Amino acid sequence: MTSITSIAPDQSEVLLRVIEAAPQVCRRHQFFVWTQGDFQRWLPHKISICGSYDRDQRDVVFDIFNSIPLPESVLQGLRSMRSEVMQTALSIWRKGRGQSAMLSLQRDVLPQPLTTALTDLGYDQILLHGLTRPGRPDELESFFMFTQPRADYGDASLQAMDMLLPCVHMAYQRVCVTERQMDSGRSASFIVAGQGLPRATPITEREREILLWVRDGLSNQQISEKLGISALTVKNHVQKILRKLGAANRAQAVAKAMTMNALGSAHMQFSESHY
User: Fold this and answer.
1) Domains of the chain, each with CATH number or no CATH
2) What angle do CA 109, 133, 33 make, to 5 degrees?
3) What is the pLDDT of residues 61-78, one digit of tens each?
4) pTM passes above 0.85
5) Which of 72, 198, 235, 258 could pair with 29 in a Cys bridge, judged by C-beta atoms 3.0 to 4.6 Å apart?
């Protein structure tokens, strides 16, 4: 169990703002935006891995929210309950009897492709916490992992994770419920109307394609390699997208596009893609 230390007044205010903003979080893009800003001041990270028990699949399924690019192979590994990183993380957390914990990739996980890829990118320490299902202490209800390159987490970070867990759990559960309801309602309306196209938006098909890669955290150079065009052309497209959507940055553009359903069926597939 982590030792409890006093919280500075300014940090108390940060935590209060994070908690006060949480009830407004209902969609995945809102969850991502919420975990920036004050949330980052309370618990710094670049990657959050969020798992929730899905009663249809009878298993915990994971989403990844990353503010810096990650290779697709790493994203897939971090979504998989079967990867050694995820299995070790769950084992360490359970051994801690439900307290916040920290995984060290270099110390706790045997070398394998996912671990090597992450350590090569500068990752080592990963904060862990979760909750078990009511009345079923051996089954997960939710599980969260936070990390960033060259992280230097300590007891204060573990305490911050402990204090924030109930809020993160409730916000993410609400997101999962809302997304399932909206996807079910949208699918039903598509069948009735005989259509499945996204709402008309000012962005072109090429810009939508680029937005999908931006959403996945790819850089302009990485997108250019995917599409076979120059990085400068990608940059020009991104600037046009920002202007058309009235967005200040790439994350805001993705959030606005998702709100408008501008990413279409590809967005819906992403919302349900868990490994």
Assistant:
1) 9-182 (3.30.450.40), 197-272 (1.10.10.10)
2) 70
3) 999 999 888 999 999 999
4) no
5) 258
